[in-house]
Write a structure and sequence with these properties.
CATH architecture: 3-Layer(aba) Sandwich
CATH class: Alpha Beta
Oligomer: single chain
Number of helices: 8
């Protein structure tokens, strides 16, 4: 059996209704994992994309603006058996100059991107620590975990915080069978980057700096998630892996 084979495993993927989350769910399914897709809007498109893989698919409606969904996600995901993998991908972004940024936009982003990810991870980890069988956590960080960016103060703070949490949880749980790692996507074609791609100057400036010469396609992210979720990464802990077309190497 390949070390990258996820057959018999079950993965919770948040924000799986679109973009990077959907692509990650598909990659994990193609590697054999059953998928519990969590998101605030319809998962029908994701379900159809995963149908050819033949894996079990469960949909859970949840909005991470509050912690309300966490116990429900745990319960609904657990009805099909043990969950082995958690991908914290759900995230939102708000854009405004720092001088004008509102408390509401700050709190909304931090609640979803950082607070929700931490407490969902904590909830699953409690079960993994109790049964001693371990688990895999893959957080979706960002290039803004390494850089400042502009006009996205709460997003940068949340993704920098998520990178820090990835390392902290790895330090606490690595010796207890839980791998906590993160992926830092570069500039991908998603809803979150629509405003950037729609600005001719910003889009051209970004593209000029990407050594690979193109914006990332969500399908180009899945392999990193499969690796970090698989036994091939058993000795990988606390890594924030850039998948950025070479952006940080520039």
């Amino acid at each position: 059996m390949s070390a990258f084979d996820l057959s018999g495993k079950r993965a919770v993927v948040t924000g799986a209704n679109t973009g990077l989350g959907q692509a990650i769910a598909l990659a994990l399914a193609e590697a054999g994992a059953g998928i519990i897709a969590v998101g605030r809007s319809s998962m029908e498109e994701t379900r159809e994309k995963l149908r050819p893989t033949g894996v079990a698919f469960t949909e859970v409606k949840a909005d991470f603006g509050t912690l309300e969904p966490i116990s429900r996600i745990l319960e609904e995901a657990g009805q099909g058996g043990r969950v082995d993998i958690l991908v914290n991908n759900a995230g939102i972004i708000r854009r405004a100059d720092a001088i004008d940024f509102t408390e509401a936009d700050w709190d909304a982003v931090m609640d979803v991107n950082l607070k929700g990810a931490f407490f969902l991870t904590q909830a699953f980890a409690r079960g993994w620590l109790a049964d001693g069988k371990g688990g895999k956590v893959v957080n979706i960080a960002s290039l803004l975990s390494f850089q400042g960016g502009i006009r996205i103060p709460s997003y940068t703070a949340s993704k920098s915080g998520l990178a820090g949490l990835t390392r902290l949880l790895a330090c606490e749980w690595a010796g207890r069978g839980i791998n906590v790692n993160a992926i830092a996507p570069g500039y991908f074609v998603t809803n979150n980057t629509e405003a950037l791609r729609g600005d001719p100057k910003r889009s051209a400036d970004i593209l000029a700096r990407i050594p690979a010469g193109h914006w990332g396609d969500p399908s180009e992210l899945g392999g990193a998630a499969v690796f970090l979720a698989s036994s091939a990464a058993n000795y990988v802990h606390g890594v924030v892996l850039p998948v950025d077309g070479g952006w940080l190497a520039r």
